[in-house]
Amino acid sequence: MINYIKIFIISFLFSATIAQANPNINARTAILIDYQSDKILFEIQPDHSIHPASMTKIMTSIIAFDLLSQEKISLDDKIRISEKAWRMSQAGYSSMFIMINDEISVENLLRGIIVVSGNDACVALAEGLAGTEENFVVLMNEKAQEIGMTATNFANTSGINNPDNYSTVRDIALMSKYLIKTYPNYYEYFKETEFTWERTGGNPITQGNRNNLLYKNIGVDGIKTGHLAVEEYSLASSIKKNTRRLIAVGSGFKTSASRTNQSRKLLTWGLTNTETFEISKKKETYFDIATWLGKEKFTKGYTKDDIYFTIYKKDLRGFEVYLEYTGPNKAPIAKDAEIALINIYQKKKLIKSVPVYSLDRVKKVNFLISILTSINYMIWGDA
């Protein structure tokens, strides 16, 4: 007998006023993804090769966060500023305005990179942590491969002009999710709207974050702007509303204002037109699965991963989620054995199936009890 147990009920009132058309985004390339489910909500040539400009600094920060998490460095460690790093602050690029031979903490350099997009801070951090910028770039490319950025190559730590520094908005979105998921505490730096550096031998310097979405009070908490003459304007952004998060990446915006407005439009469209539901949480959500001839009448079922599902709000009426299994499951049942499926339907069509596994081992009752249970079932039809 197949058991169908409805485990998910939509508490959403359908509204005919929901906008269903795709947003009209003016960018050369763009992507919008749901953070929990990884569903792509919108895209424009997401695999078109771009020069990521200062979005490169996301990876520069990730390498530092890796070293911090491994306790190979600390935020208080001091790095002496080289002439090469200092010259970056004299070249007209966005800068933290460090001074040669000064000693600056890892934390201040990170904030100089993340908040004010300091190219000088990138070189200084790279030299301090890996000896040379070139050595640091090797770490960046190794990490890119590790997290699945298949169309990316980094040639420097800052993203300034170099034809060998390239990526795609798809890869940048993947990198952004890795950042947020792996380092939620360090990600807090990305929502800071200004950074004041108490520099040595001069007045404190205060600079604002170039991501204007941070000032809009709409839930955006990152991530990184970019600009190159050849690429025009770019932005990796993320918005969080309650427990839901979206990540948008776009490049080829004509102006800084367009970068802000178009990215906001894309994020808002995603929140307005789609919804994400938590179906099962790894190590938190458990399902009661009936057993047959087992010492326990039920065993707990679990999923090996978090299960989220994103759907367009216009399609919610046909959305159903069932726990399904043929059973009761006959004992003995091994720990971690597949015992059920979570099946997700859209208008009665199966669109996703997720295995459910037994949390514990279920032993079979002794022979006498199994005989009596079988006789009882034959007589009364009720085990």
Describe the structure.
The protein has 8 helices and 18 strands. β12 and β13 form a beta hairpin. It is elongated, with a radius of gyration of 26 Å. α4 (119-130) packs across α5 (133-146). With 383 residues, it is α+β, with helices and mostly antiparallel strands. Helix content is 26%, strand content 30%. It has 2 domains: 2-12 and 280-380, Peptidoglycan synthesis regulatory factor (PBP3), Domain 2 (Sandwich), CATH 2.60.410.10; 29-253, DD-peptidase/beta-lactamase superfamily (Beta-lactamase), CATH 3.40.710.
Topology:
Layout: E1 2-8, E2 29-34, E3 40-44, H1 57-69, E4 78-80, H2 83-88, E5 103-105, H3 106-114, H4 119-130, H5 133-146, H6 169-182, E6 194-197, E7 205-208, E8 220-228, E9 232-241, E10 244-253, H7 256-273, E11 274-280, E12 287-292, E13 298-302, E14 307-312, E15 319-326, E16 329-330, E17 338-346, E18 349-358, H8 367-380
Parallel strand pairs: 12-16
Antiparallel strand pairs: 1-15, 2-3, 2-10, 4-5, 6-7, 8-9, 9-10, 11-14, 12-13, 13-18, 15-17, 17-18
